[in-house]
Amino acid sequence: MRTSLVIANWKLNGDLALVKEMATHFAGLLKDTTTTVVVCPPAVYLKAAEIALAPVNIKVGAQNCAAHTDGAFTGEISAQMMRECGASYVLVGHSERRAIFGESDDVLAEKIARVQESELTPVFCVGETLEEREADAVESVIEAQLNAGLAQADFSNLVIAYEPVWAIGTGKTASPEQAQEVHAMIRRWLRDKAPEQADTLQILYGGSVKADNADTLFNQPDIDGGLVGGASLSPEQFDAICKAA
Length: 245
Ligand code: 13P
Prior knowledge:
By secondary structure, this protein is α/β, with parallel strands linked by helices. It has helices spanning 16-26, 46-53, 79-84, 95-100, 105-117, 130-134, 138-149, 176-193, 214-218, 235-244, and strands at 5-9, 36-40, 58-62, 87-92, 121-126, 159-162, 203-206, 225-228.
């Protein structure tokens, strides 16, 4: 009932050459799959990525957007501008945005609204730190993030990504059981808040997803695909991850 979705988050990496490499590598590979594949390059490469990747059935997305639509916000890019440059998805609330750039729950809720107003799909990221996991606070932390970020959200156009902070870029993946437990908890939360979308909304796992662990993670009943950082910079690895979905 849910199709798979795999999203590459290049973060502050990649260049036009990598866009080309991806296009060449994926030529013909995604013809007969129901899996949706998305690449989120740095925003300046969005248009070039859309032009190169649309013919090989890869969509593009933005890693972030402004909480405002327009105005005196030097350096910001609006959701509508991302859309004009070819984006179909926008990541919102990645733990790096929360921790390094201090994005609060209120700002993230605003960003979700801007993305949905622009008819793009937000990929709302949640996840606990190691301290929070060790303090047995996983459920309360994730619930608080969901309640705050999605207070006004339209659940019919939304993806949720669970990315435990301790698993991002560390090589420490959540075990399939650990990940499934949180995904099931998110699904229960959805049943309460948005019963009509609870069974169709895609929930992705992110955090050190690699070619050799993607299969067991994606086989869990409530894991509908992945949000991939480091491994998405290698067309071969990313391709293997997409095949596992
Ligand atoms: P890694 O796959 O490099 O751990 O990054 C995960 C991530 O943050 C994707 O958004």
